[in-house]
Amino acid sequence: MTSTSPSPTTTSPDTTAPDTTAPGTVATFRAAELAVTTAPATGSDRDVAWLSPRQAPFEVAGFGWFAEEGVYRRLPQRSPWPLRPEVDRKADATAGGQLRFTTDSTVLAVRMSLTGAPTMNQMAPTGQAGVDAYVSEQNADGSWTEPRFWAVARPAVDAAEYERVLLPAIPAPAHGLRMITLNLPLYLGVTEVEVGLAPESQVAAPRPFAVPGRVVFYGTSITTGGCATRPGMTYPSILGRRLDQEVINLGFPGDGKGDPEVARLLGQLDDVACHVLDYETNVLETEKVRTTLTDFIPILREARPEVPILVITKARCAREAYDAEQVRSRLERRDIQLEIVERHRAAGDEHVHFLDLGHLDMAAGTVDGLHPTDLGFTWYADAIEPKLRRILGGDTSR
Questions:
Q1: In whole angstroms, what is the distance from residue 328 CA to residue 188 CA?
Q2: Domains, the chain, with CATH or none
Q3: Number of Cβ atoms within 10 Å of the Cβ of 265
Q4: Which among 70, 147, 275, 389 counts the fewest CB atoms within 10 Å?
Q5: Are 358 and 315 in contact (CB under 8 A)?
C-alpha cells in the first residue's frame, strides 16, 4: 500500500465528466492508488491491483463489532460476559459478512486466508469457504437493478489459502459504476482478504442500503447457512437482498442454545431494526426451550425496550413422516414459545411477535432431512419475508 493517502476524484453516478458540486456525486479512487500490491492474478495474465477492504471506500457489513475491532468476526473478541468456548470459537466463522463497493473494473478477484480448509461431507466447499459476488447495474436514470448472482470463488479443498478470479473479463458498465457485494464464507473464519481489481479502474463507496437499521438473526446451523452451496443463499442473506437491508447472521451450529451471555451481547448492538430468534432446534430438552426463551427476551428488552423481536419455530423435518414423537415434540415446543410471546404481549409488549414455520415440509428441500439446500433456504425466506416486512413496517399484531 502506498504510504500517502490517495486523492479521490469526484464522479457522478452516470457521467465521466461530472459537475462536482452536483448532488449525488461520489468520491472515487483509482484502484492502483489503493493497492497493497499489483501483480497478475492466479489463472490470468492480467495485472490486478490487490486492495484491502479494511480501508475506504470499501464497506464491511454484517459484523456487529467490526467498527470497534477491525476483525472479521461475528462476536467481540473480548466479551464483557464469558462465552461458552464453542460459541466463542464458532463466532470466527464469517457467515453474513459482506464486502461492499462500487467500481467500473473489468476484472474481479479475491485472495483469501482462512482459519482452515473445508472438511464437511454434506456441504459444498463453496458454501463452507467460498466467496460469491452479487452485482447491481446502474441505469441511465440513476436507479439500480436488483442484485444478481454473477460468480463464486471456488476454494481450495486442502488448504486454508486461495486466490481466485471470479470475473476475468467483463464489459465496462454502461452507466457509472457497478455495485458489488461479496458474501464471505459461512463455516470458516477469515483472517485476511484482498480484493483484486483492474489497476486503472475506479472504486468508490457502495450505495447505501435502502432500508435503515439491521436485522439480527440468532440461531442454529440452519441460520448460519448449513447446507447452502454458496454464502449468498442462506435465508438471512436472501432476505437481506429482498429487503435491501443489512443483516447480521449469528447462527452457531449446534450451539445456538439461547445463552444469556449472547442475549446481552445482542443488546449491545446499535441500529437494530429487529431481532429474529430461531434457535429452538439446538435446544435438545423441551423444558429448556421454555427456560431459555423466558430469560432471553427480558434480557433483550432491558437493553432495547422497543426493538421488535420475532420468535420463529422450526419447520417440519423429514423424520416426521415416520416418527410421531418428532411431531408431538415440535407441536409442544411451538405451544411453549407461543405461550411466552403471548404472555409478553398481554403484559403490554406489542413488539414481541411469533411465526410458526410448522407448515413448511422441508424434506425435499434438505440435504439430510434437516439442513436446507438452496431451494430449502428459498422456502424459508418466502415463509418469513411477509411477516418480517410487516414488523419492519410498524405492524404490532402478533
A1: 35
A2: 9-62+97-204 (2.60.120), 214-392 (3.40.50.1110)
A3: 25
A4: 70
A5: yes
Order of all β-strands in the sheet with 108-114: 37-40, 47-51, 190-197, 108-114, 161-167
Give the number of other Cβ atoms within 10 Å of residue 63's Cβ. Answer: 21
Q: How many CB atoms lie within 10 A of CB 156?
A: 16
Task: Write down the H helix ranges in the chain.
Answer: 31-34, 66-69, 85-90, 125-129, 221-224, 235-243, 260-268, 286-303, 324-346, 374-392
What is the rounded CA–CA span in Å between residue 208 and residue 227?
Answer: 29
**Phi and psi, residue 267, nearest 5°:** -65, -20
Distance from C-alpha of 156 to C-alpha of 125, rounded to nearest angstrom: 8
Are 141 and 191 contacting, i.e. CB atoms less than 8 angstroms apart? no
Please state, in angstroms and rounded to a whole number, the distance separating the CA atoms of residues 387 and 354. 9
Q: 242, 64 in Cβ contact below 8 A?
A: no
pLDDT in tens, the chain (398 residues): 333 334 444 333 333 333 333 334 568 999 999 999 999 888 888 899 999 999 999 999 999 999 999 999 999 999 999 999 999 999 999 999 999 999 999 999 999 999 999 999 999 999 999 999 999 999 999 999 999 999 999 999 999 999 999 999 999 999 999 999 999 999 999 999 999 999 999 999 999 999 999 999 999 999 999 999 999 999 999 999 999 999 999 999 999 999 999 999 999 999 999 999 999 999 999 999 999 999 999 999 999 999 999 999 999 999 999 999 999 999 999 999 999 999 999 999 999 999 999 999 999 999 999 999 999 999 999 999 999 999 999 988 88
What φ, ψ does residue 312 adopt, rounded to 5°?
A: -115, 130
- The string of DSSP codes covering 87-130 is HHHHTTB-TT-EEEEEE--S-EEEEEEESS----SSS-HHHHH-
Q: What is the DSSP string of 44-76?
A: -SSEEEEE-TTSTT-EEES-TTHHHH--S-SS-
Cell numbers at residue 207, please? 450505495
pTM for this predicted structure:
0.93
